[in-house]
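Ex. 9. Protein: Dihydrolipoamide acetyltransferase component of pyruvate dehydrogenase complex.
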Amino acid sequence: MGTHVIKMPDIGEGIAEVELSQWHVKVGDLVVEDQVLADVMTDKAMVDIPSPVHGKVIALGGQPGEVMAVGSVLISIEVEGAGNLKESVTPAPVAAKEPVAPKVEAVVESKPAAAAAPRPAAVCQGPMVAREADERPLASPAVRKHALDLGIQLRLVRGSGPAGRVLHDDLEAYLAQGQSNASAPASAAYAQRNDEEQIQVIGMRRKIAQRMQDATQRAAHFSYVEEIDVTAIEELRAHLNEKHGASRGKLTLLPFLVRALVVALRDFPQMNARYDDEAQLITRLGAVHVGVATQSDVGLMVPVVRHAEARNLWDSAAEISRLANAARNGKASRDELSGSTITLTSLGALGGIVSTPVLNLPEVAIVGVNKIVERPMVVKGQVVIRKMMNLSSSFDHRVVDGMDAALFIQAIRGLIEQPATLFVE
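Predicted structure tokens for Dihydrolipoamide acetyltransferase component of pyruvate dehydrogenase complex:
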């Protein structure tokens, strides 16, 4: 037998350390080649570390939440024979658009020969399995959250993925068998509870917390809210979807807002900027790279629609949809999650009446979209029903004056309320 030591991979781009976010195995587990061993976090990208070999886990190199140096020992696996003397290469990061191959060094320590560890089966049969109460089944963070939302005890679900990994389909199969523990007796709703739960802030949640704290401490936030009549642009959107939806794809309001940002920024270039507060330097950019805040299972992510100034409505819509799906599925690359010059944030139907968005540093402006509601309005002396929406936007007062912020949002308002002006050059 031999020992295959996997070191923390070099993700690239000058990163010297990464955070160990989650283990998917424990000491004593049998693993197969390509099985995910751990998740590590770098900037806003979550990376899967798979096994290049099959064997038995004999040591773990760190604890979840620990920041580890690139090249430090991540995990040791007992393997058959002398082990693999060549360098092994991990598959692409979860957040990568195209395959990215971080380098993983393999160190082999020879041991006396012994019987080979049996290779575990990759597929399990049936929807349900009994595990020990403290046994942690293999599952991704998204699957764990889905199980929690459904009220399912994950240890009771048989996984059909490699090495028994629980997949979304396994949760559906479990529910189909009528074995969900989601329901409880009606009297339990009034039962006295004294339980507590402690949740370690690690991985993506820690990155979000750090960025939000940094933004609120460093920037001088102020918000400006304006009401917008979106009746006309919603009529235009419905018309375009009816006429071109089947061939070009459906339009949401977001690509219209992206277009409005592009046009308004021509007169307010100070909003499309980054501020380096250490160097005391403002950089105004001609390119409009719009960050679109997107909620995913692992937290808030901001994929970037690059060169929005060169895109038409359907091009913007397709790119927003592609990036949002990539972010939600954990497949957005580092490049797709960085480089924005101004951010658009929306909670859709849950947008509420008003919000106070936090700046996406080093940007100086963020435009927040609230929900659309029908309300009676007075138009030319007549009370009519109009579709109304608020824009709740925040700015860095160190760079942006209040008057300029108000004029900028008023410019967006004029473009949205008179949608033909979005396309008049």
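Check your answer against this statement. Residues 2-79 form a domain with the OB fold (Dihydrolipoamide Acetyltransferase, E2P) fold (CATH 2.40.50.100).
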